[in-house]
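Sample entry (341 residues):
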Amino acid sequence: MPKKSTKVLIRNTVVLTISIILLIVGAGCIYADHMLGRINYIENTASNPNTDPLFKQENGTNAKSGLLGGLYHDDAITNILVMGVDDYQPNDPGRSDSMILVSIDSRHNKLKLTSFMRDLYVAIPGHGNNRINVGYAVGGPQLAVKTIESNFGTDIDRFVLIDFDSFSQIVDKLGGVNIELSQIEADLINRNSGDPKRNLKEGNFLLTGKQALYYARIRNKEDNYDFGRTQRQRKLFSSIVNKFKSADLGTINQAMYDVLPLMATNMTKNEILDMATNSPTYLNYPISQNRIPADGEFDGDDVLISGTRAKVLVPDLDKCRQSVASFIYEDEIPTGEYSKD
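Predicted structure, serialized as tokens:
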């Protein structure tokens, strides 16, 4: 073959290869933008002055930490408050009856779940004392976040909202979730979930959306009401994470396409894209669980709420703040003022 023809062939091959790569990348960007456009975005009005992008630290070696606006903050740890919201009636904003702080900890390479029990009796900024889930009812997700921050001292970076109707759809889109059931739990789900399948019994079962939703809401005296309920919610969250760990790319892609419109968040598109990019790493972190208040960190009481006596949990805030900080930051609790410099 003549030398000139060989050069032309090489040039054309290189141009074709680059064109294909650009086409694939371009199509991928368009598809990613389409996927991200399916999410319901809420304006980020957090008082947190730190505007650095999330998930920028692949490891925590050089990440900065400190007190940010008086709250514990670590660049290597992203705290996202996931709220399950129940709409009791039309035009009722509902209450955040499930609150799990998900800490993506790239300093210690762990995924940490902290449940806040809904009967915690705390100060709602600007609204006096009440159950913690009232924060969402009177001020939306922003006040729910502020309530947890002001009472428990840890910076929350972002939030995600999932209403209970959407939750059952999400589970079905994922093909169900595996949960180890007690006989009491199985009987309650069979009777009350509304799912026509009533064959559950003690053991490990693949739950449908309706079954999983009722499982997450069970409150019975056998496991001390909301104490058992929050544990079930953490188990359910862990099961969903494990399902993604074993799923193939096509399954994950289809699930995300179906699930994203059922959630709302104040994360930006770029932050979600960064999280998705790093998800293979995050999903393989071991999962740790915590509950606030822990045993010995509260007193039970009857208080007057809206003219009615109600049973609440009055937290020992000093102990609870220490418990939250020790769980999330371990032996590296931030000290001193946070500085990006």
